[in-house]
Amino acid sequence: MYGMQESTLFKLSLWMGLIGIVILFGLTQIIEVPAKEIASITDDDLDREVRIIGIVEKVDDRENVMFLEVSQVSRIKVVLFDDVSVVEGDRVAIIGTVEEYKDRYELVGEGIEVLG
User: Fold this and answer.
1) How many other C-beta atoms are found inside a 10 Å radius of the C-beta of residue 20?
2) Which of 35, 87, 91, 108 has a Cα-to-Cα distance from 66 of 20 to 30 A?
3) What one-character DSSP code corresponds to residue 47?
4) Burial label, 24 (beta-carbon count in 10 A; 0-12, 13-18, 19+)
């Protein structure tokens, strides 16, 4: 059409796609969900991803799910479906989605990092 062969256009589009994927991957490594205070979680946060940092007060490890109670000044229940090694007293950072269950907020955890 403009002097480019079909194979050249294919190679160009393939390279541009790969470059785009690399850029997106790099951005996901840089962008971090900001930490939120448990006490400041409201209805506006429902179904949104948040990051909390707190102390594990209670661990209830069942066969396919783990329930944590994490505290700052306030407390929130965290539901994890991953097998993680967490004990009471650990300081953790958790990223998850805010849900409401029995008129209380809880966090469905997507990732957890033990800070100490």
Assistant:
1) 10
2) 35
3) T
4) exposed
- Residue 50 exposure: Cα atoms within 13 Å on the Cβ side: 25
Cα within 13 Å of Cα(42), Cβ side: 2
* Reported pTM: 0.68
Distances in Å between the alpha carbon of 77 and those of 30, 35, 55, 59? Answer: 28, 16, 12, 10
Residue 33 DSSP symbol: P
What CA–CA distance (Å, rounded) separates 86 from 54? 13
Q: How far apart are CA 94 and CA 112, in angstroms?
A: 4
The whole-angstrom separation of Cα 59 and Cα 20 is 41
